[in-house]
Amino acid sequence: MDRSRHCAACGIELEFLKREHIQLGKTGFLLGVWPNLLAGALDAEIWVCPGCGKLDFYLARPEEEMGTCDIAKVRCSACGVEYDMDYPKCPNCGAKNMKW
């Protein structure tokens, strides 16, 4: 089954960014954070467009269907090395990660 997704804004294929639990509910004046904590969380996949930066959110697939969860990669504009998106600088040449 093809699981590729495309950006609604520019049509470029989206890249998987991460899986996240998004907190539901809101904080109340009288009860504080309790309604927020009791509301639970939504398990979601976050995808990003490498062209325009648009984020798309989808309900997460079960773990066994998803396989391994790798961190999204970026390519260094200075030396061309591919590294994890969550690094602030290129581990090879030290150039700033423009997506961090």
Chain-wise SSE layout:
Blueprint: E1 15-23, H1 34-39, E2 41-48, E3 55-59, H2 63-66, E4 73-75, E5 82-84
Antiparallel strand pairs: 1-2, 2-3, 4-5
Q: SSE order, as H and E?
A: EHEEHEE
Characterize the largest beta sheet: strand count, sense, and whether it forms a barrel: 3 strands, antiparallel
Rounded radius of gyration (Å)? 17 Å
Residue share in β-strands: 25-35%
In total, the number of strands is 5
User: Outline, from the CA principal axes?
Assistant: elongated
Describe this structure in words.
The chain is mainly β and 100 residues long. The chain is 10% helix and 28% strand. The protein has 2 helices and 5 strands. The protein has helices at 34-39, 63-66; strands at 15-23, 41-48, 55-59, 73-75, 82-84. The strands form 2 sheets. The chain has a 3-stranded antiparallel sheet. A two-stranded antiparallel ribbon has the order 4-5. Strand 4 (73-75) and strand 5 form a beta hairpin. The longest helix has 6 residues, at 34-39.
Summed up, what is this model?
The chain is mainly beta. It has 2 helices and 5 strands.
Supply database-style keywords:
100 residues, mainly beta, three-stranded antiparallel sheet, two-stranded antiparallel ribbon, 2 helices, 5 strands
